[in-house]
Amino acid sequence: MLSYQHDYHAGNHADVLKHSVLALLIAALQRKPGAIRVIDSHAGSGVYDLQGELAQRGREHEAGVTRLLAAEDPPSCLAPYLASVRSLNPDGQLRYYPGSPQLALTLLREQDQLELFELHPQASAALKRHFRQRRQVHVHHRDGFEGALAVVPPRERRGLLLIDPSYEQKSDYVRVADTVAAASRRWANGVFLVWYPLIGHPGSAQLLARLAQLKLPQAYRVELEPQPHAPGLRGSGLIIANLPYQTAEQLQLLLPWLLRCLSPQGGGACRADWL
CA-CA 20 to 30 A from 138: which of 114, 150, 155, 184? Predict the structure, then answer.
């Protein structure tokens, strides 16, 4: 039930998509001076050692974030994401990769808050160790679906909820849709960011259909499929509700660039459109 460890996949193409868009959305919310709260339902360990045993087994980062750091022409909307990665690697050698909690923390202003949920005992303990002296960060060893609903709407009223389970349990597809439905009723102006895998299982298509039925405001979809013939994860997607102003134009530039960078031999596909 709690066997998933993201260390195997840290920095891969799915992380690149999810985290670059997360950084872009946080930056968009911070155009206004008022405080925001970022809520992460499945926070993981926070920071990943790409030279560790688990990450070295598949070395998935080599076809992901490593290619981005080597690119010479990244679009300006990638700057917050790349700055977060580089801040963990000040010597210029890529060793550590920021999960979504570390990425968000890098971008927080003094007035902002970060709420983290993680049920896996080892990952939750790692979060508490890593962020124990960060007064803006609140770590909960708790089911993220239940926890997210317990803290929305936040007192700041503005912010973002990231929902990105591993989907190893097929019930996650249903729980994601149910959580978004309940959270959007409680937090009408919250930005919701839902990650889903592009694999052979029909769950993602069913999830998309359910989210479309909710008629979420300003609902936008991005998908990146750099490895169309991969036997497992060939790509991933994001649904964003309450997409901030002018962000659609940034995403329409970002997705083709990411595809060229992560699939240099050609092939693959991407999309950025209203749901």
Answer: 184
